[in-house]
Specification:
Length: 64
């Protein structure tokens, strides 16, 4: 449970930094993402998901 809270906290910190440091750039990025085809967005999401799972796996392997 503490790992889940840690992960959610890290996501909040990173997203908060993006909004605080570059709000207009983030808005431009969202606009560009909205213009991408659905298949491309889906592939990007699945790739990010796979990267996240891989990083979690690596963290677990090296932590224990």
């Amino acid at each position: 449970m503490s790992d889940l809270l840690l992960a959610i906290g890290l996501v909040c910190v990173i997203e908060g930094l993006v909004f605080a440091l570059a709000p207009s750039r983030f808005q431009d990025l969202l606009r560009q993402l909205a213009e991408l085809p659905v298949g491309t967005r889906r592939s990007l999401g699945l790739s990010t998901l796979a990267l996240g799972v891989g990083l979690i796996w690596l963290a677990r392997v090296f932590a224990g």
